[in-house]
Design a protein that fits this description.
By secondary structure, this protein is mainly beta. The chain has one domain. It is built from two helices and 18 strands. The longest helix is centred in the C-terminal third of the chain and has 12 residues. The protein is globular. The N terminus is likely disordered.
Length: 323
């Protein structure tokens, strides 16, 4: 049986000898909860009390060997990085059109009078619990429109797991409508990562040589994966001496599964379950109406590996996520 199968399938994810405990350090003065795999920083949950980044995020995110897989800018710029799209911070979840409010493109740079921008406002941490096999954060947030009125209440459960060679982030999101809302078909969404420059695709205009390459479950590679439906997407690359696989998995329980991939060579890596029109050139529209009190749930997995995972290993990992 392949090593990845041993790690990711069965009743438990990890053999005890390989498992790294997950622990947390709360830093209220910086509006964050740091997540540790063993003694090493894995990521941090930033809940942004001053709303400068307009949504809670996981940032930074580190590989098993301690390399940054997320872009540093705008929070902690690193030399040579792109400085586009200031709303691309770490790992986040939101959408470009809810009752006409753009949650995706909002950032500290946006003129709030020019467009109806929505903000995801952190309201509470319900649970922080570490453990030998995994750790959990359960957090709540309000999705507020441009006038500050709450449209949706969110509860997200983050589950973190780690071994020497792997990191896993699961996020289960429950959105409950406070009033009738239309989540309109829009290309800007939903679960997303902004990548470190080493994991971008080749760009002759850049003064560095990125190493990233996307592959989807149909074997389509490179920037051709944009707009395609896929159960999962694998990004392989290299940072220093570390081989990296960064994979995102959509879940069959999600609306409009498998989603369209809003994956760009410059470093945006996202899957969108409520956005089909632009991706399908108008042949599909996937608006979702959420009436007052109704709930809509999403599940995603992010896997970071210090090896280049094969297609067979990706298939096994996807099957594990579905079980």
């Amino acid at each position: 049986m392949k090593k990845i199968t041993l790690l990711l399938l069965g009743l438990s994810y990890f053999a005890s000898a390989q498992n790294q405990p997950i622990s947390f350090k709360e830093v209220p003065s910086e509006d964050k909860i740091e997540v540790y795999a063993g003694k090493d920083l894995f990521t941090a949950f930033l809940f942004d009390s001053d709303n400068s980044i307009k949504k809670p995020v996981l940032y930074p995110v580190l590989s098993p060997e301690g390399n940054f897989i997320t872009r540093g800018w705008p929070l902690n710029p690193r030399e040579g990085e792109r400085t586009d799209h200031p709303h691309h911070v770490g790992i986040w979840f939101n959408h470009g059109d809810i009752n006409g409010n753009d949650f995706w493109n909002n950032s500290y740079e946006r003129d709030q009078t020019k467009r109806h921008y929505g903000t995801v406002v952190h309201t509470a941490v319900k649970k922080v619990k570490g453990g030998k096999k995994e750790g959990n954060i359960i957090a709540q947030a309000d999705w507020n429109d441009f006038e500050g009125k709450t449209l949706i209440k969110e509860e997200s459960k983050y589950t973190f797991k780690a071994t020497k060679d792997y990191r896993i982030i699961d996020r289960e999101i429950t959105l409950q409508a406070v009033e009738d809302v239309l989540i309109a078909d829009n290309k800007e969404g939903m679960i997303a990562i902004r990548l470190a420059r080493e994991l971008e695709h080749f760009d002759p205009k850049r003064d560095y040589q990125p190493t990233g390459n996307y592959t989807n479950d149909m074997g389509i590679e490179g920037t051709d994966v944009w707009s395609k439906r896929s159960e999962w997407m694998r990004l392989t690359g290299k940072i220093g001496d570390e081989d990296i696989t960064l994979a995102i998995f959509d879940h069959p329980d999600n609306y409009n599964f498998p989603g369209h991939w809003h994956a760009r060579g410059y470093g945006l890596f996202a899957v969108n379950n409520i956005g089909s029109e632009i991706f399908s050139k108008g042949t599909e529209v996937t608006d979702y109406t959420l009436n007052e009190g109704m709930k809509l749930k999403f599940k995603y997995r992010i896997l970071i590996s210090s090896k280049h995972l094969t297609e067979d290993e990706m298939v096994e990992a996807a099957r594990a996520f579905k079980e």
